Hints:
Elements lengths: L5 E12 L2 E13 L4 E6 L5 H8 L7 E6 L2 E2 L5 H11 E4 L11 H11 L4 H14 L15 H13 L5 E5 L7 H18 L2 E5 L3 H4 L4 E6 L2 E4 L2
Helix pairs in contact: 3-4, 3-5, 4-5, 5-6
The structure holds adenosine-5'-triphosphate and magnesium ion (MG).
Adenosine-5'-triphosphate binds next to strand 1, strand 2 and helix 1.
Amino acid sequence: MSDFVIEARGLSKTYQDGQIKVEVLNEVDLAVKPGELVAVIGASGSGKSTLLHLLGGLDKYTAGEVRIVGEEWRTQSEVKRCQLRNEKVGFVYQLHHLLPEFNVLENVCMPLLIAGVEPIVAQEKARAILEKVGLSHRMEHRVGELSGGERQRTAIARALVRQPACVLADEPTGNLDQHTAEKVYDLFVELNRAYQTSLVMVTHDMRLAERLEKVYQIVDKKLIRER
Ligand SMILES: Nc1ncnc2c1ncn2[C@@H]1O[C@H](COP(=O)(O)OP(=O)(O)OP(=O)(O)O)[C@@H](O)[C@H]1O
Ligand SMILES: [Mg+2]
């Protein structure tokens, strides 16, 4: 077994649309330990979202390997990949991808119900994490009725409700004002401490990045350790 929650070695990605090839990542290495907090920065179009998608098994890589809790994405069956994604990885997207017609509690319950957890148990777990993110009073509200910060906190609760080994967050504070962004960030750190979850967070916000343990930057298709 590997000591890392996420381990990428010689990871490369080239998109191909018809005749046009776009090389985005070239032999990138990254290893994330349990409980580690990692920031990824880089210019728009440098490949940050691409990297997160590859780490989370959402897209195919062109070369190299990516292991999640020691299992290589490429060598798993589609069924096993889904299982690993559901159990081990929590995604937080910049656009939160919540289900607008469902309420907050239902959105957070969803990953548990998909995993076959009994509805009563799912509700209990969802309520507990919603309390942690400060949304106890909004559980019955539909997502469409929430503020931006509340939606983001709902998305974080949903990503963490199964206590995944790692959370991959793509600019989770990108559309929030500085004050709310800081609060969302604090929440991440607090929940990471509570659950020993690793975090890889893409951000444009250098002030937030500076507060994480390690900072990487994507420059010219390479991932460079900044700090
Ligand atoms: N499906 C795709 N097909 C072809 N090219 C793509 C595809 N997805 C992304 N790209 C290209 O890959 C490059 C990296 O995109 P990516 O979305 O990873 O950048 P990013 O660093 O997340 O940018 P941003 O900060 O703007 O979100 C871009 O040049 C983009 O146009
Ligand atoms: Mg992006």
